[in-house]
Amino acid sequence: MSFPTPWQGQAGPSMLASHADRERAVDVLRAGYGEGRLEKPEFDRRLERAYAARTVGELGLLVADLPAGPVPQQAALGPIPGTFLPVPPRPTNGKAVGAVVCGGLTVFTGGLTALPAIVLGHSARAEIRRTGENGDGLAVTGLVLGWVSVAGWVLLAGLLVLMVLAH
Question: Which helix (H) or strand (E) holds 118?
Fold first, then answer.
């Protein structure tokens, strides 16, 4: 199997070499030296000749006996077994998202979204236990915000009743 050199194609061997052509040749030489294909003195001589080369043909001769890249790999023989595939993330329960949004809006709506937050939170937690979806923390947050809002209104109503009875 022959390896293509980085300079094959439209450019002929007599075309003047660019800086990029020289650097590609030097990269091939360094790889060959690193793999033990060239001894240090020969590597140094070829490196010097690569930087002094005027044409693409000269560079091609310096790396002709070295592989220009990794050996091509065969295509995969079949599909990848499921064991090696990443586990897809579990979806987040939509009702849990709704519960936390309604719970957060209780501050701005004067508590009007507290009951939807509580209903959605309980419903989401039941679905999460049944389906294994993500979002339990969101559902609990929505529940807590909803119940805190309800408790705040109950406390406020109790204080108002006490004030009325005290007069």
Answer: helix 114-131
